[in-house]
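Dear colleague,

Thank you for sharing your sequence with our group. We've completed the structure prediction you requested, and as agreed, I am returning the results in plain text so they can be pasted directly into your records. Please verify that the sequence below matches your submission; if there's any discrepancy, let me know and we will rerun it promptly.
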Amino acid sequence: MDTYFQRFEDRQPPPPVPYSATREAAWQFLATLSLCFGAWYLYWRWTSSLNPDALWLAIPVVAAETCAYIGLMLFTYNLWYLDDRKVDPPPETIRDCGTGADIPDRPISVDVFFPTYDEDPELVRLSVLDAKKLTYPHPIDIRIHVLDDGRRESMRQLADEEGVSYFDRPNNVGFKAGNMRHAMERTHGDFILICDADTRPFPQFLERTLGYFRDADMAWVQTPQWFFDLPEGERLPAILSRFIGRPGSWIGRGIEGLFGPVVIGEDPFANDPQMFYDVILRRRNRANAAFCCGAGSIHRREAVMQVALRSYVEAVEEKGKRISESIEDEELRAQVDLTRLAVLEREFTPFRFHVSEDLYTSIYLHSDRERNWKSVQHSEVLSKMLSPQDLQSWTVQRFKYAGGTLDIFLHDNPLFRKGLSLPQRLMYGMTFWSYLGVLWNIVFLLAPLVYLFSGIAPVAAYSADFFLHILPFLILNELAFMVGTWGVHTYKGKVSYLAFFPVNLRALWTVLRGQKIKFPTTPKERQSGNFFHLVLPQFLVMVLTVVGLVLAIVLFGLGLGTFTLGGIIANSFWALNNMAAMARLVGAAFWRPREPALQTTSTPVGSPAT
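Please find the predicted C-alpha cells below.
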C-alpha cells in the first residue's frame, strides 16, 4: 500500500519520561508557591481590584480567573507525584491471573479486536500483519478478529487471506461499542486487546502488559498512543534556501543562532499525545483513576462482563421502579417484570453505547466497590497509529472527544456516582472541568479586546499593585509546570486548548440542547480542500487583536480615551498571547505535507465511528 505515512515506518517512539525524585520535589515546592500566590492574587482581585464603573466586565473576568484557578488546583493534584506500578513477569497460565483454583489450568487466550467501518482494507491489513507478529514467552492462544461494520466483501476477503476471523452484523446499533459487543458474544478469550483499524501493536505488547493481570483485580491496562506519522517539520535555513538560495540559508542560520532551532510545520495540529499519556494519565495511577482510551488497551473479559451485568441491573431496577410507580392498574403492575426483561434485552452491553464508550466503561468499572477493579496506565509505547493529517479530520476528532465527555458530565456525572473514591472523583473532575474551560476561555479572549477598543478595564487600575500581585503568580506557575513536565513539549498543547474554543463551545451547546453527539469516523487519509472556514472565529480574534492594538496605541499617544501605560502593556501581552494561540491553528488550516498523501478513500464526516 503506497501511502504518505510509509516514509515514517522506521521511526521509533520516545522512551517514557524518567522519574527524578529531585525534580519531583522541586515541582511540588514551586507548585505550592504558585497556588499560594494565586490564592493571594484572587483574594486581592475580589476584594480590592474590581472596576466599580464596569462591573459587567469586572465580575465575569474575575469569575473566569477563579474557575481557571480551580482547574489549576485540580491539574496540580493530578500531576502531584508519580507512582508507577511495578510490572510483574508475564503469567505462564490462566491460573496465574487470579482466576481461582476452580478454573482448569491452561494457556492464556487473547482476542485481538480490529473494529472497522470504512477504512481502506490495505490499511487494516497492515494492522493485522503486525498483530500476527505478537510474541509471548509461554504457550498462548492469540486470535485476531476483524469487526467490519461496513459489511464489505473486500474486508472479508482480507480476513480470509490473512487467516483471521471476520465478523459483521446486520446493523450498526451502538456503533463501535455495539460492534465490540457483537464480537464478544462470539469469542471467548480471557483478555481482549482493543485496536483501531490503524493500530499496529508491537510484538512485545502482550509480554509487557499481561504481567499486570497477575493481580486478580486488574481490569484493564492502557498503553500510550503514539502517532508515528506526525510531521517533523523543516528547519528555517532549509526553507529559506529553497526560496532565495544560499543567502536564505545564511539568514536562517543567523536567526537560529539568536533564538535556537526554528522548525516550521512540526506537528501543526498539536496531535502529539505524550503530555496526556506520559504525564497526565500516568500520574493517575496512584489514585487508580487512569481511564481507558480505546485503542492500545487490553481488558480482562471477566471485568467487562461483570460491570455490564451490574450496570444492567441498575438500569432495569430504576426503570422498573419508575414504571411500577406510574401504573395504577394491578394487572398492569404485575407485568412490570416482563417490561424489565425487555429493558434487559436493549441495554445489556459490555461496552456502554456512547460516543465516549471507553471513558464511560472506565467510570462503571472504577465505581464497582464490591469488586474494586483496578486500572493502570503503562508508561511504554507498545503500538503505533496514524494521526489526523488535516484540519477537518482534527476537528471531527476533537468535537467527538469534547461532546462525549461533556455528555457524560451533564447526564451521568461521575462526581456524584456511588462507588468512586475521592481521589478518583478529583481525577475525573479535572477531565470534565477542562472541557468546561471553554466558558472562561471565551472571557479571556474577549476581555483584552474590550480594553483595546474602549479603554474599559476589568480592574480598578493597572497600577504597580496589580503587577505586584499577578506577576509572581504567573512566573511561579510557568516555572512549576516547566519543571513538573520536564522533557515533554507542553506549549503547543496549551495554546491549542485556548484556540479550539469554537469546537468545545459547539460541543457544549449540542449537549445542552439535548442532541446526541454523532459517531463520526476520524479519516485515516488526508482530506483535500480549503479548511479556512473552520478557523474563521480564530482568524477574527487575530484581526481584532491587530486592529485593537493599533487603535489603543494611537489613542494613547494622542492622549485620547482612558488608556494608561500599564493597561496598554498588560492587555497587549494578553492579546498577543491569544493571537499567537489563534495563529497556530489558523496556520494549520493551510498546512500541506511537502509530498501530498495518496488518496485512497474519502471518508464522509458523520459516518459511524470505528
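Summary note from our side: Residues 541 and 579 are 7 Å apart (CA to CA).

Kind regards,
the structure core
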